[in-house]
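Friendly challenge for the regulars: who can give me the structure tokens for this chain first? No prize, just bragging rights.
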Amino acid sequence: MIVIMKPGATAAEIGAVIRKAEQMGLKTHPIYGDSRTVVALVGDLTGITRESFDVMAGVLQTMRIQEPYKLASRTTRPDNTVIDVAGVVKVGGPEIVVMAGPCSVESRSQIIEIAHAVKDAGATVLRGGAFKPRTSPYDFQGMGLKGLEYLADAREATGLPVITEVMREEQVAMVAEYADILQIGARNMQNYGLLQAVGKVKKPVMLKRGISGMIKELLMCAEYIVSNGNYNVMLCERGIRTYETATRNTFDLNAIPVLKQTSHLPVVADPSHGTGLRELVPAMSRAAVAAGADALILEVHPDPDQAVSDGRQSLTYKEFATLMVDVARIAAAVDRNLAVFTEDAVHVK
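First reply, four minutes later:
Bragging rights claimed.
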């Protein structure tokens, strides 16, 4: 259920709605949008009628939300959520953000070199894995804490905010200390303890769609994070498992406009994992921007054939730089812009 406040409703009127709902045993989530303020009510709504709040001062109307994902729904918040990342870049606004870097942090010199290269080409966020969930227990699992420290060194050297994956609940505090965006990987989409844990921190979260996850399930998992108090959630389409074997995954381009229509949360596209083939990444990157993605997350490596993980889907520096030019053109064609890093902040190109 949501209580929609009238334009110009005072803080006292909003506060009165919140107090009344809490007296009824409900949890409240006030959402302040550009066009209206909404108070979302979560809990046992049995016996609570619309009239309970419609008669209150400052209330426009009360609505029941049919979707099971109450707080992530665009019905609750028609305005797009725009997430500020470390005061450097905003995801979900008119500018398209590009996150780029290696699948895995391999050394301090490697990640700093890549950070400079992707920044020079136009990336505004540095990606890199310190903890790597791998199908085989014998594959490289990441550098752990040392990898986090190297990512922080790369941020210090370039100014780029950092996104990296957190795999377990007990890692959340440590990763949040070093990262600007916490990534929840596809294998952990339905790790509810982890989702609740990142919901209690103040850092933005990028939630990847599970390997066989439905869009509804992705939104329900986002609801776990938002309902725990962290509204800064990005939804990532990274491809799903189907019967097709020509590519690593089936990159569900449909998911991007569906998510934009259904939810107010920003949508990130990951064509690297979506295809698993570097020669297909540029086409799917362009397509994702045309479909409405707010950001891209791409794997880049100086020598993909020598990468310790995911080299087959990683772009070279030259390929990434060329793609950035193409992405800027597609962004302009759909009346958007590519965000570009400067020493002061990110400006529109």
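Residues 83-348 form a domain with the TIM Barrel fold (CATH 3.20.20.70). The chain has eleven helices and 16 strands. Your move, everyone else.
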